[in-house]
Write a structure and sequence with these properties.
By secondary structure, this protein is of the alpha+beta class. 42% of the residues lie in helices and 21% in strands. The protein has seven helices and eight strands; from the N terminus they run ααααββααβββββαβ. A hairpin with a 2-residue loop joins β5 and β6.
């Protein structure tokens, strides 16, 4: 009997946590641009570099995100009916910068030059190793955040220091495409 009560308490706690997360997720989604994006959040060390156009680059990326936020994830997808991470990066770079990226993250990771995590600027591609064979890709937007097509929530913003993403981080690449 005590085991049943313990299990019922655990189940109730689990339901409570899931409900709280879904409420937080819905609230965060509607406030995404205000809470996550502010050009003043771009690191001062990157915007002080001569010739750096972080604010314009960031604006283009965020404008694109505004049109795609919440589009569901679909492996192999490349439209508003569903898109995967590498296709979303193709769209961001093509629509925002008229720059063509290869179709897969395995090909995208070969482009540009490797960048240290501490030196990221808006527009850098961020790669994650999600399994032995699979990679995930997003685009850095400053303040430790990146945009990507998430398997669970579609096109969204996430933090690099998120418990999941920080363990999967592989590398970042700077694609020399952009004097916006």
């Amino acid at each position: 009997m005590n085991l049943v009560i313990v299990m019922l308490n655990i189940f109730t706690l689990f339901i409570f946590v899931l409900t709280a997360l879904s409420v937080f997720s819905a609230t965060a989604s509607t406030n995404t641009k205000q809470a996550f994006f502010n050009p003043s959040l771009v690191s001062k060390k990157t915007s002080d570099k001569p010739g750096n156009n972080d604010t314009q680059r960031l604006k283009k990326i965020l404008d694109h995100y505004g049109e795609w936020e919440g589009v569901r994830y679909k492996f192999g997808g490349n439209s508003r009916n569903g898109i995967d991470c590498s296709a979303y990066m193709q769209r961001v770079f093509k629509d925002g910068f008229s720059f063509s990226l290869p179709r897969t993250s395995h090909e995208q990771i070969k482009l540009g030059s490797r960048v240290a995590k501490d030196d990221l600027i808006a527009g850098d591609l961020i790669f994650f190793k999600t399994s032995e064979q699979e990679r995930h890709v997003g685009v850095y937007v400053g303040d430790g955040k990146f945009l990507h097509a998430s398997v669970k929530v579609g096109v969204t913003v996430s933090k690099l220091d998120n418990q999941y993403w920080k363990t999967k981080y592989d590398q970042a690449r700077r694609i020399n495409h952009t004097e916006t």
